[in-house]
Design goal:
Blueprint: H1 2-37, H2 42-71, H3 76-79, H4 89-111, H5 116-323
Length: 324
């Protein structure tokens, strides 16, 4: 932040210096032009043109140096012009040569004109062009100043972002160390669990082997027992076969007995039917005899009643006769 502030102050001082130089050159050129407009000779016109050309070169060199400083604000000190006593003689010769060429070109352009008024008009036009270029340079300088301010702001923002990134990196490093410790702890725990799992697996394998041996022994015993059971099943099958044969013979005997019983039952049924018929006939005969006896009893009772009535009448007659 302090470096950015110092750079900004240096840029402001250089801008003020360039503006003051530009205004001085513009005022000087305007004064010389006005004086020439009131009747200077051809010699004065040439001196004025040379003076304007020198001022233009000085202004262009100053503005170009200012533009180069604004484009790369971090290298202002490296691009500042050295003092007059320390300048390279080759660069001075090159500047003088370039300036001499421009002066010669301007002189040739002025010599092509015939009257002083035309030469003065050409100088005024040249000055107006230089003034327009100076204004354009000032506008560009303002734009570059704004860009410089934006770059400074971006630099400050980037510095803050850089400090934040450094802080975040330190936090990430601490988190990474913590994560490494945690991973180491987890690795140790996983190794311990793996050892415990291996021990449990060995115990389970041993237990499984013991159980498998017991199952094999039981299977052998079951094989022996199954062989005995198969032998017993064979014997039982033979016995069952004999029993089935005996049962078949008994079934045949029972069928014969059932047939004999059926015949006996049919005979008994026939005898029963015959007996029933005889009983029925006897009952009918008994019924007829009973009816006959009942009829005779009824007639006898009727005769007895008649005889009782006759006896009563006779007793009455006897009693009547006795009374008489």
């Amino acid at each position: 932040m302090e470096e950015a502030g110092s750079q900004e102050m240096g840029m402001n001082n250089q801008e003020q210096l360039v503006k003051s130089k530009c205004s001085e050159l513009s005022d000087t050129a305007l004064q010389h032009t006005q004086s020439n407009c009131y009747g200077l000779e051809n010699t004065g016109t040439l001196e004025e043109a040379e003076y304007i050309t020198k001022n233009r070169k000085h202004l262009e060199s100053t503005c170009c140096s200012q533009e180069s400083r604004e484009e790369t604000p971090g290298r202002e000190e490296a691009r500042t012009d050295p003092p007059d006593g320390q300048q390279d003689p080759e660069s001075e010769k090159h500047k003088e040569k370039t300036l001499g060429k421009e002066v010669l070109l301007l002189m040739q352009a002025l010599n092509t004109l015939s009257t002083p008024e035309e030469k003065l008009a050409a100088l005024c036009k040249k000055y107006a062009d230089l003034l327009e270029e100076s204004r354009n340079v000032q506008k560009q300088m303002k734009i570059l100043q704004k860009k410089q301010a934006q770059v400074v702001k971006e630099k400050v923002h980037l510095q803050s972002e850089h400090s934040k990134a450094i802080l975040a990196r330190s936090k990430l490093e601490s988190l990474c160390r913590e994560l490494q410790r945690h991973n180491k702890t987890l690795k140790e725990e996983n190794m311990q669990q793996a050892r415990e799992e291996e021990e449990r697996r060995k115990e389970a394998t041993a237990h499984f082997q013991i159980t498998l041996n017991e199952i094999q022994a039981q299977l052998e015993q079951h094989d022996i027992h199954n062989a005995k059971l198969r032998q017993e099943n064979i014997e039982l099958g033979e016995k069952l076969k004999k029993l089935i044969e005996q049962y078949a013979l008994r079934e045949e005997h029972i069928d014969q007995v059932f047939k004999h019983k059926e015949l006996q039952q049919q005979l008994v049924d026939a005898k029963l039917q015959q007996t029933t018929q005889l009983i029925k006939e006897a009952e009918e005969k008994h019924q007829r005899e009973r009816e006959f006896l009942l009829k005779e009893a009824t007639e006898s009772r009727h005769k007895c009643e008649q005889m009782k009535q006759q006896e009563a009448q006779l007793k009455q007659q006897v009693s009547f006769l006795m009374e008489r």
